[in-house]
Structure formats: C-alpha cells, structure tokens
Design a protein that fits this description.
Blueprint lengths: L3 E6 L4 E7 L2 H11 L4 E7 L2 H10 L4 E3 L2 E3 L2 H10 L1 E2 L3 H7 L1 H5 L5 H11 L4 H9 L3 H9 L6 H28 L10
Antiparallel strand pairs: 1-2, 1-3, 2-5, 3-6, 4-5
C-alpha cells in the first residue's frame, strides 16, 4: 500500500497536512464533519515525510495537523504536490492512477539542462548544495529529489522551475486513463 501525504483545504484559511495509505477512505472520513473540504494535492511518502513537512512549516501550525494557509505553504504545495482538485476528481482518477503521477523526471532534467547545457550535474550541485552523484541520478531519471532536494532546487531556481514541474505534472496527469469507480 502506497502512502501519500495529503493537503486538505477547509475553506476557512486552514490546511490539514496528513498521511494515509488509504486516501479515499481517509478523506471520506474527514469530509463527514466538514463537507466543504477540498483535497489540494498529494505527495508520495509516508510518516517521515509528513513529519518533515510539519517541522518545515511549524511556524504556521494551528494545532495538530492543521496549519494556517500561509503564502510559503501554498507556494510549496503548488511547487511539489500532485494537484488533484476536488474530492470528485480523486474518486474519478482512482488511487492506482494517482500512484503513477510523480515529479516528472524529464521536465526536471530538461529544465536543468536548459539552464546548464554543460556540466549540468556539477553546476546544479554547486547551486543547491546537493551531492553531484545525487544530482546525476535526478538527471538520468534513476531517482527523484526528496523533500530536501526539492526545497534546495526551488530555492536555487525559483518560480521558473516550479512552473516547469507543475506543467509537467499536469501534462502527465492529463495523459492518464480516466477511471470512475462509481459513487463514493
């Protein structure tokens, strides 16, 4: 069972950051008390990643897993999460198809190579503080950046990289076969 870190918007300026291996059931459970909640995005990962994100945005914590919808948190969600939209959309996509969505390695590779056409890994490592071998793996597609790697990349390359990754994710998501599992 693949665990996903999820971000829910309660419509009142609060975001819940949680983790679940059964996302459909978890959101259905949470929606019972607040039918206006919207699933903003998910990120592949389990409890360790959730804790890292909670720690990173501790200044905005309201209590438990609830955080103020601060600009920095919203920018992070837009940059690294798999955008999914509404509860109906996740039900329609199905969790199996969502597992296929990832930070598009080709979009990241193409962006980094366009910025640094020669010695790409060396220059990216220098700008991000990440090991050259790690960056080489991102570029050849054998691994994806973890949370710290994504944060380092976004700090180094800013909005242009975020827009590239979001665009790559949306294109990848649009190419998935549509599936409807029936009413929730």
């Amino acid at each position: 069972m693949t665990e996903l870190v999820y971000f829910l918007d309660d419509g009142a300026g609060r975001i819940k950051i949680g983790v679940s291996g059964r996302l459909t059931a978890r959101i259905r459970q949470l929606s019972t008390g607040n039918p206006g909640m919207t699933l903003m995005c998910v990120i592949p990962g389990g409890g360790d990643l959730e804790k890292e994100i909670h720690k990173r945005f501790a200044a905005y914590r309201l209590g438990g897993e609830w955080f103020r919808a601060a600009e920095e948190l919203l920018a992070f969600i837009a940059a690294v999460g798999w955008p999914v939209g509404s509860w109906d959309e996740i039900t329609e996509l199905g969790v199996n198809e969502m597992r296929a969505i990832s930070v598009a390695a080709s979009g990241l590779r193409d962006f980094l190579r366009a910025v640094h056409p020669r010695s790409t890994a060396f220059y990216v490592a220098a700008r991000t503080g990440q090991p050259v071998r790690t960056v080489e793996k991102w570029i050849d597609g054998s691994s994806r950046p973890n949370f710290e790697g994504l944060v380092a990349l976004l700090r180094a390359y800013g909005r242009p990289l975020a827009e590239t990754l979001i665009s790559s994710q949306q294109t990848k998501r649009a190419d998935l076969p549509r599936k409807f599992d029936g009413p929730a």
